[in-house]
From TrEMBL:
One Gene Ontology molecular-function label: oxidoreductase activity, acting on paired donors, with incorporation or reduction of molecular oxygen
Keyword Heme on entry: yes
Pfam families: p450 (PF00067)
Taxonomic source organism: Musa troglodytarum
Name of the protein this chain belongs to: Cytochrome P450
Keywords, ordered alphabetically: Heme, Iron, Metal-binding, Monooxygenase, NADP, Oxidoreductase
Coiled coil: none
Family, similarity comment: Belongs to the cytochrome P450 family.
Cofactor(s) this protein requires: heme
Length: 440
């Protein structure tokens, strides 16, 4: 069959125009400057400037270089967003480009090669896992369904603290909270109880791993972090395998099992379920919440007037003749403000989990190279003096309607950013209940 020469010529012309346009766009983007940032040192880049307190040091650098800053960390390029407008540019305007995650060595084994919800790339499996979690664990109806679990475990926590205090023994608040929150998640997921199963995972994952910044020597595991995390993974995997095989009570695992295959053929595997339980729910749902509660308790002890006001509100709404119920929380406006202020001033994850862009893109007239990592400095955003009056002062009134300072208009994406700072957990309701039970 003969090919129409006019059609062939038109197709060739369209292809040529496409190639020319793509080349022009690439040249236009390549002419854009990189975001400002420190030059760093040969080979190691700006790693010494970041240091141990990365969030504080990056905030200090942002005062010099601006809210969008580019650094070379070892062999990787990293862009840092340090105010709300910069965060919006990356996470809202260019959310599709930065919806993926890099592949940190410390999380590789415990996330089952990134088969979980937190570290996975943005793909159909990720969407399915997120949908199931939202519907059957974190959604409003599902959250209310596990109220008895939270009430029983917090009751045990308070009785344990009271028993220790009666004996004159010290109460290590962080340990008590981590234990209670782990038990809550364990009881939601399965009828067995788990205690202190995430400690090694948290400590190993938080360590600076030189292999993440110099992949060519990652195989040497100079600090032994990968071997430690692999050992944690083996122990946790054995426990999760037994859990999947032996669980009997109807629970969240059953919901995952029931939604293994969708109408379009997407599947949830045993590996996805294990990764979701170990990396996302236990690791991100215990220590992060405990740290936030501990900071809130510390701030209220440092500010007795705030503590007395929160207690007075609880006495007026709940009284002293019964225990607080989660249905009381919407009426405790000041306690909700204490929660928000603690999240603002002391985010449990000062730097967001890193995002990753596979392609070069333009953000606010800057060129962001391909394979760049993105960090959002949540700690700096919460202390931005252009947004918050007296940002270093713990003042819940800034979130109370009719207070001396107007309420900051937290947009929906900013609320998501606050949630990301604390990982995947039961959010504000769980913390409010914990603080009231611990202070009342």
């Amino acid at each position: 069959m003969a090919i129409d020469p006019y059609l062939a010529a038109a197709a060739a012309l369209c292809l040529l125009l496409h190639l020319l346009l793509r080349g022009f766009l690439r040249r236009s983007t390549s002419r854009l400057p990189l975001p400002p940032g420190p030059r760093g040192f040969p080979i190691i880049g700006a790693l010494p400037l970041v240091g141990a307190k990365a969030h504080a040091n990056l905030a200090r650098l942002a005062k010099r270089y601006g809210p969008i800053m580019f650094l070379r960390l070892g062999s990787h390029g990293c862009v840092v967003a340090s105010n709300a407008d910069a965060a919006r540019a990356f996470l809202k305007t260019h959310d599709a480009q930065f919806a993926n995650r890099p592949d940190p060595l410390s999380a590789r084994d415990v996330s089952y090669q990134r088969q979980d919800l937190v570290m996975a790339d943005y793909n159909p499996t990720w969407k399915l896992l997120r949908k199931v979690c939202s519907l059957h664990m974190l959604g409003g109806k599902a959250f209310a369904g596990w109220a008895a679990v939270r009430r029983d475990e917090f009751g045990r926590m308070i009785r344990s603290m009271h028993g220790l205090a009666t004996k004159g023994e010290p109460v290590v608040l962080s340990d008590v909270l981590v234990c209670a929150l782990a038990n809550i998640l364990g009881m939601v997921l399965e009828s067995n109880k788990f205690k202190n199963i995430v400690l090694d995972m948290l400590t190993g994952g938080a360590q600076f791993n030189i292999g993440d910044f110099f992949p060519s020597i990652a195989w040497m595991d100079l600090q032994g972090i990968q071997a430690k995390m692999r050992s944690v993974h083996v122990r946790f995997d054995a426990m999760l395998t037994k859990l999947l095989q032996e669980h009997e009570a109807p629970d969240f695992i059953d919901k995952l099992m029931e939604n293994r295959v969708t109408e379009d053929g997407q599947t949830i595997t045993d590996v996805n379920i294990k990764a979701l339980i170990s990396q996302d729910l236990f690791t991100a749902g215990t220590d992060t919440s405990a740290v936030t509660v501990e900071w809130a308790m510390a701030e209220m002890l440092r500010n007795p007037a705030i503590l007395k006001r929160a207690q007075a509100e609880a006495d007026a709404v709940v009284g002293r003749d019964r225990l607080l119920e989660e249905s009381d929380l919407p009426k405790l406006a000041y306690l909700q403000a204490v929660c928000k202020e603690a999240l603002r001033l002391h985010p449990s994850t000062p730097l967001s989990l890193p995002h990753f862009s596979y392609e070069e893109c333009e953000v606010d007239n800057y060129r962001i190279p391909s394979n760049s990592r993105l960090l959002v400095n949540i700690w700096a955003i919460g202390r931005d003096p252009k947004v918050w009056a007296d940002p270093l002062v713990f003042d819940p009134d800034r979130f109370v309607a009719g207070g001396e300072e107007p309420i900051h208009p937290l947009r929906s994406w900013e609320k998501d950013l606050l949630r990301e700072a604390d990982g995947h957990d039961f959010l504000m309701e769980k913390r409010s209940s914990t603080w009231r039970r611990s202070t009342g």
